[in-house]
């Protein structure tokens, strides 16, 4: 496993921190908050958002670049009347001071950066996310996607000014809400065996293939097609059940494209802060209900999946 | 440690929409490279590949991403000082696009 992910996170330490675990024997398949403790060696955080108080890891990657900090890397948008500073935790090999650039009562959380595109390495992505976690401790955030860099503070003020009402509106909608991620995976081989137990046609086809002399091409084709459609059917049914169950305690949900062959659901849920425990309980419930599925449960996140910020530049040259 | 997907994919964030259609094709290439990176990360998470193999895959994908960017010669930094842009911020409550 990567150095960023302590093994202990798999054992769900964060949940214990939220409330005393009254079900000691419960298998903790759902690894809640996998990413919340990138640098804690198994020490459970005192409270969910305690990342703010944690020491920051300096990334050793040496970068021999001439550092002229002439751009502004934007992490998120928040509501604040006062300028704020969040410490020297910015992205890059020499972490810069994270501070705000304001327009009226909203502000972008930024750090000075060389004018460059950051590679989505684990280190960089974690640095971006860590700033958002620190800010989330005190504010509702509208997260920016990775590697959003503006040339100057004026550009950022211009961004905030032009979409001021929309930013305000979204900030209100996101107030006291958290995003949680749930990925559901299965082992297709195992599911096929299960399906074969239940489906007579499939069983007969398989027997036919194993007893037939000569070419089994068509029988195998037919078998393959039947397996695919049965897998599809089962996956859709499971996904619907899971989304229905969790949707009942969430404000909203979104599904993204599954990653890889084994994933059947890649979903994000927006949950009211005061329903967090209910949501947690529901995830536990479905985790226990579906023994053959693997659940990857993460959060709380800034609402990455529930805000869309689209900046349309009319002239291509403007983005250079 | 599946955080890349939030920062890179899934309709998040900040889309730079340049009008030129040539750029769209590049964006698609970038998108599929990012998907490749995510898939590799998932396999790492599932223990199907080890850290070394992941690092190797990551290095390849990052190099190809860099090539695309260099071909575009974009610094990635956005300037709005000359106007000519639109910002659209929306709450996306429900379901896929």
Using brief descriptors, characterize the structure shown.
heterodimer, A: 320 residues, alpha+beta, 6-stranded antiparallel sheet, 4-stranded antiparallel sheet, 8 helices, 34% helix, elongated, disordered N terminus, disordered C terminus, B: 97 residues, 54% helix, extended
Q: What's the helix and strand layout?
A:
The complex is a heterodimer of chains A (320) and B (97).
Chain A: H1 13-18, E1 71-79, E2 85-87, E3 98-103, E4 106-113, H2 122-136, E5 142-143, E6 149-150, H3 153-162, H4 164-174, E7 177-185, H5 188-198, H6 200-211, H7 217-247, E8 252-256, E9 263-272, H8 276-289, E10 294-301, E11 307-313
Antiparallel strand pairs in A: 1-4, 1-5, 1-6, 2-3, 3-4, 7-9, 7-10, 8-9
Chain B: H1 4-8, E1 13-18, H2 21-45, H3 51-72, E2 77-78, E3 85-91
Would you mind describing this structure in some detail?
Chain A has 320 residues and is of the alpha+beta class. Helix content of chain A is 34%, strand content 22%. Chain A has helices at 13-18, 122-136, 153-162, 164-174, 188-198, 200-211, 217-247, 276-289, and strands spanning 71-79, 85-87, 98-103, 106-113, 142-143, 149-150, 177-185, 252-256, 263-272, 294-301, 307-313. In chain A, helix 6 (200-211) runs antiparallel to helix 7. Residues 1-31, 33-66 and 316-320 of chain A have low confidence and may be disordered. By secondary structure, chain B is an alpha+beta fold. In chain B, 54% of the residues lie in helices and 15% in strands. In chain B, helix 2 runs antiparallel to helix 3 (51-72). Chain B is extended. Strand 11 of chain A pairs antiparallel with strand 3 (85-91) of chain B, so a sheet runs across the interface.
